[in-house]
Amino acid sequence: MHIxxxxxxxxxxxxxxxxxxxxxxxxxxxxxxxxRQVALAPAAAIARSSAAVISATPFDWSRAxxxxxxxxxxxxxxxxPVCLRGSRNDAENCLLDxxxxxxxxxxxxxxxxxxxxxxxxxxVRTVLSAQGRxxxxxxxxxxxxxxxEAQGKFSVASIEQRLTQQLRHISPDMQRMxxxxxxxxEVPQLLFLQVLSSEQEARRHHVTGPFPSARFRHSAGAPExxxxxxxxxxxxPVDGRVHTLFVSLATPSTVxxxxxxxxxHAGQHMQHLFGEVPxxxxxxxxxxxxxxxxxxxxxxxxxxxHDGHQRYGEFAFGETREALxxxxxxxxxxxxxxxxxxxxxxxxxxxxxxxxxxxxxxxxSAAPAPARARTQRDRKTSIAEMKKALAELERLDRYxxxxxRARFG
Length: 409
Prior knowledge:
Layout: H1 5-17, H2 28-40, H3 43-47, H4 49-56, H5 68-75, E1 82-85, E2 103-106, H6 108-113, H7 122-130, H8 135-151, H9 156-167, H10 172-178, E3 184-196, H11 199-204, E4 218-219, E5 224-227, E6 231-238, E7 241-248, E8 255-258, H12 262-268, H13 270-274, E9 281-291, H14 297-311, H15 313-317, H16 321-324, H17 357-360, H18 383-402, E10 407-408
Parallel strand pairs: 2-10
Antiparallel strand pairs: 1-2, 3-4, 3-5, 3-6, 3-9, 6-7, 7-8
């Protein structure tokens, strides 16, 4: 097949310079024009082509870095919750902290995140697997999204371009302060400690000891000090005052000026600095660490934030307490609610109750109806029938009371 010369040059240049090949027809003209400029540009400009492509990519900076929990929730939003019943024997519980002998509705995403996929009804598991929405496939999807962000939106070149763009919007006085020799970067640090919050969780970690109250917690490891992964502060001491810029990959603006003390501000914006901290960790004792600006403070900050995003991968994966336990019960199939019911996600379960035996079956002691129908007054209700009817009413009362239950996950 004949290939036009310009199209061949476009393909060859894209392959040799590592540029993405865009197959969408609407972008074909723009790509050809851009590569024609690259072909006529000097060698130094061609060497910078990768950075040019990154800076031209329209990233959505209003979205925080991807997490496994968010990926699972977004892709399982149409799956109705599963009704499960807690057991007094923890060996029969896949999930932790389920109240015993109580019906609880659990979201499908929570079950999969906790490694309790076996507790989903078999037909649901079959459909999710066929659609590529089982645990293994969704975890692979999250890994690919996180890696794509690390190489694209949160690469050093992209972060540097974003910072440069946003710093152009600050006042000229602040821009001059930023170039001051005493300007430095300040990174918040936190002490993290993995803790066990219940006796069941402690037993799964082979930790013995009483839990006198719900607030009492056991440690599951040594404390660890960590730098903030997703944010930092630019500190500019000028004329006896310290001016501060807050920088975060988890905020839509990325850069904003603050008038608070940085340590106070950091305590109020934990999620913008450390992201979504897994529930198994307890935090304490925040402190600040100073970092030199290097030859280019914006470049230094971009490298710092890129490395932080890489380290954030552990928190972004966000293993649940159930999955972190050495003695995992992920193979256990949690007991379904009794009686077994399947309720729509956005519809009250009381709209379609099962037919009551008294509604569809005649009383056992009732005689066959004669040719001439008798009225209710023609016969007297026996004491046995009254007792049976009363027992049925009590059963129905317990059944409908059980439908008003707590939700989980």
